[in-house]
Amino acid sequence: MSDVLEIVDLHAEIEGKEILKGINLRLEKGELHALMGPNGSGKSTLAHVIMGDKRYKITKGAIFFNGLDITNLNTDERSKLGLFLTFQNPIELSGVKLFTFLRTAYSVHFPNDNKTFQEFITFVQSKAKLLNMDTSLLSRNVNEGFSGGEKKKSEILQMALLKPKFAIVDEIDSGLDVDALEAVAKSLKETIYTEPKMGSLLITHYMRILKYLSPDKVHVLMNGKIVMSGDYGLALKIEEKGYEWIKEKN
Ligand SMILES: Nc1ncnc2c1ncn2[C@@H]1O[C@H](COP(=O)(O)OP(=O)(O)O)[C@@H](O)[C@H]1O
Ligand SMILES: [Mg+2]
């Protein structure tokens, strides 16, 4: 049976303010779903809640991973099960080299993997090259002084190494110029679609990244609820008409 991530009637609040107001979503491994919506609709909140960010309080509903209720698991446990989130604003880690960071993350995920140091270097470099990433970034501090596109690629590289079952990709297109966007989208596609395929929830405000990735489904989040779901045609319609017309129907 294929892996399934299922969100059932999820309500969550932060500092007493309800942000998610009953989210239902089912994502199967190998599927790419896009989650679109205006700023402030709760997209990043949903991403953080799926990963178990303790700043948010779940007041109702549940999250299941292959039928297992993970609503109360901590982030580490979710990550070991195969969930991964790329951040909208990747953090800088001064004093930590990207290579060291990746090696640590990898060994936590795959404690029984017996690659030698040299084999691990070769492995990381081959993945970086596949993503058309400048391998000199590996010996620099995580994200420090990286361009927008380089930061996003370093997130994708981490994802490519850890090979999660489900990836939640939060506005990886934000702040990128057209060329960087194309490069990042292609790297993402390579990573998501290389066998075994991941399931992914691609969060975006704009249509432009979806042109490269052709999602199986598109959902629109507004004011903490999924108000419309459809196929790629829905994303095209949003590009043409914006979000107002959807608001009017609800
Ligand atoms: N730490 C916080 N304290 C209070 N409100 C917050 C906090 N973080 C997010 N919010 C509010 O939650 C709502 C949803 O934000 P967010 O999930 O970031 O939206 P999106 O990613 O769709 O732009 C916004 O109204 C935002 O102001
Ligand atoms: Mg956001």
Distance between the termini: 37 Å
Strand adjacency order, main sheet: 6-9-10-3-11-12
- Secondary structure category: alpha/beta
Quaternary status: single chain
Radius of gyration from CA coordinates? 18 Å
Low-confidence stretches: none
> How many alpha or pi helices?
9
Helix content: 25-40%
Largest pleated sheet: 6 strands, mixed
CATH topology: Rossmann fold
Number of strands: 12
CATH class: Alpha Beta
User: Which H/E pattern describes the elements?
Assistant: EEEHEEHEEHHEHEHEHEEHH
| Attached small molecules | adenosine-5'-diphosphate, magnesium ion
- In CATH terms, the superfamily is P-loop containing nucleotide triphosphate hydrolases
Mean pLDDT comes to 93
Provide the domain count.
1
CATH architecture: 3-Layer(aba) Sandwich
Which properties best describe this structure?
250 residues; 6-stranded mixed sheet; 37% helix; binds adenosine-5'-diphosphate; alpha/beta; globular; 4-stranded antiparallel sheet; binds magnesium ion; 9 helices; 12 strands; Rossmann fold
